[in-house]
Amino acid sequence: MAVLGIDLGGTKLLIGVFSESGELSYKEKADLENRQGAEVGAFITQKINALQTEWQQKGDRISAAGIAVPGIINPESGIVWAPNIPGWEAYPLLNELKQNCNSISITIDNDRSCSLLGEIWKGNARQCRNVIFLTIGTGIGAGIMANGNIINGAQGISGAIGWMALTTPFRDAYTSCGCFEQHASGEGIAKSARELLQSEKITTSLLSRIPLKDIKARHVFNAYSYGDPAAIKIIRQCIQYWGMATANLVSLLNPEKIIFGGGVFGPALQFLPEIIEEARQWAQPVSIKHTKFEPSALGNEACLYGAAHLALKNK
Amino acid sequence: MAVLGIDLGGTKLLIGVFSESGELSYKEKADLENRQGAEVGAFITQKINALQTEWQQKGDRISAAGIAVPGIINPESGIVWAPNIPGWEAYPLLNELKQNCNSISITIDNDRSCSLLGEIWKGNARQCRNVIFLTIGTGIGAGIMANGNIINGAQGISGAIGWMALTTPFRDAYTSCGCFEQHASGEGIAKSARELLQSEKITTSLLSRIPLKDIKARHVFNAYSYGDPAAIKIIRQCIQYWGMATANLVSLLNPEKIIFGGGVFGPALQFLPEIIEEARQWAQPVSIKHTKFEPSALGNEACLYGAAHLALKNK
Question: What is the pTM of this model?
């Protein structure tokens, strides 16, 4: 018996076949190739059915699939809103897969919860009952476990920490993505760099060698490593916001551990001691004394493992 | 059969006798009269035993007591840290009461959770599974229910939202009480008034008629009602912080309802529409569209009812 873990992103699909005992035995990555709406659902169906046939031919059986989705899932209807997948404003993913994937149990959950589930199952959150996985990539999200339960919220939208208000005054730019995400996501780092280079007319930064519109977070991290003053200024600001958001999670939820993952953590892991120092300034002092801070153990496979764990629970 | 609900504050004890069906049949308020440390424990014991005897003489029986404590309770040992009660840095309240109150079941919990429990039981949080009670009084705290469970955190310190980081840069004043509490608690309102009057040398405000050290939040609300510009400025700032903190709760936990209580809400309830408007700017937009905002139904008895509910569950 085997199960599938599927991590759906805005541009790609990561699929893993896991044994009953939880070992990853096969992995593939498939590009969505600009598929939209129902095409994406059909593509997932096709991948599931192909792997199911393949495993049958080997004399094995795939009995369940768990799918991590980058968006909001209505817990009752299984209808998905995923802003990064065109045409998924209200896509009936669960029904589509249930109808078109025979004799296989289907479970879907959001990517924030799945990444956390992965770390709880096989990573740095094992044995934790109060733990948060803070994902900082292109966007920002948090998976939250409290008192041993994954927290979904009333509409399954909990963990939208990219919207955390961290500084005054309100800026119009926050309207589309939230204050924390505007300043300290991967996209936020790139935006801050573009803004800084433009507003201060800096021409001597390593970053000014790149066309403004092409600047990415990785360029800022790279320039930082060469001691570039503009990059240092941007990263310092991010450290402050990462620290403040971390402090707010600690004060509000008193977790035993916060795990940092996503594409930015990654390169930003080098700043973890400074982020913790910043957080200590702001947080409830007794609470933060007890909190551990760790990088993700599973990296960009955390979500895949979490999706597989969903499947194993419903196999 | 009856149970006791006890709401311990920094200066007083509120005690209620509740019937098995949850009706409040008797209430008394007792001043702590500067008692400290073990004296406070002895005072609670004495009150419990006196009421137990009294009810016995009536042919009834008090079988359980729930005590709400203004601080942090170690969930395993029942040892309490309560900053507003001198000598309660590590006070073994649960053991003291268990040893000295015979044939009565004792349960303790923090005041944040108890206020929420009260509203869930008899107030505006009935039927809710994802709900937050935001208490803004002298200090600030939040009771959190998520997925139908009260969230305690790893050390029982969750809900310390007075420490929420809401604006940059960090100020030394935040070290003792947290950023949100510094700006927008009852004490924070008074501090802001004193600061404003001093720093801007305002002499024409209604508030400048009161000796600086005697200014309380209620004076600011009162001056506001007369259109006093200094008071308006302070209250406007509070509305922003109350809105930002509300938004952060919505984005992070996606509650169906947030309930506002405590001494400040109270007079600040008149600003609820503006607080919601401020919160809408910052919060995850889908989430806040679904959130309801209501005042506490039980007012300053929410915590007492919650304590009684604890007792009833363990009678």
Answer: 0.95
